[in-house]
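Moderator note: this is an archived Q&A kept for reference. The question asked for a predicted structure of one protein chain; the sequence and the answer are reproduced below.
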Amino acid sequence: MTEGDRGALAESLRRNPTLVFENTPEKQALLDRVTVSELAIPTRHGDCRAMLVVPPGADENAPLFINFHGGGFVRGYEVRDTIFCADIALRTGAKVLDVDYRLAPEHRFPVAFEECYDLCAWAFANGAILGIDAGRIAIGGHSAGGNLTAAITLRANQTGDFVPVLQVLDYPFLDAATDPADKTPGLEDEVLPYERMRAFNKLILRSPEDALNPYLSVVRADPADLPGMPPAVVLVAAKDPLAGEALRYAQMLVEAGVDVRLRKFLNSRHGFVTNGLEEAADARSLIVAALTGAFRPAG
């Protein structure tokens, strides 16, 4: 595939979403209740754009949730992501950093992983700048953002660079090596059809070997690297072709002795949480409860 072909495929994926977010007055009201400022955070790939979402009354010792959006590493940040972050901020009292990371095919693996890892390391080292308690930072993401969350947490567990208090994996993409049709056989959904997933993979990978890298296919991580990982919340949509790999990784974490809270939403499809569809209200309440508990000061 030529660079021109990659660019054309990416443009098609970006112009033709399978879910269209409807920004209702109720959703917009969430944004109107928070303060959103744009930051440029230094990383090895240059400054990373991120929105800092601050709820009313947040002080300089607030906890922080770092959110990574979905989109197959190809489709970018949208207002729905900041609306989701505003909801989380208002219900937990935490500040939320909504990350607009670099996209494929312009920036293929491992650029987004490295950029987001550096951003997390910066946040842990610069609590005073963000006005947060660096001992109470959680990270999470949706789909491709769930992949980034799992990979970052894995790498941090290996290096000891930082320790999130919680990882939130929302219908995560965790296996780039298995063909989509073989992931959860017989389960193809119009939100995430097989050919769309194959297209995302073509744009992410530099070579077939990348698909085997545990920082992209986290289900291929060495089990010896998993003990000591922070607690995890794993949200699975039963109608999602990615359900199988999320369940598999949750089981890997459990076998490693990690505290895992797993919930399978039987009536939901991929993308339901950030788009506010189906069982999104229950899923968001689960995330809020887990974050509230993780942010509670020890003692």
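Archived answer notes: The chain is about 40% helix and 20% strand.
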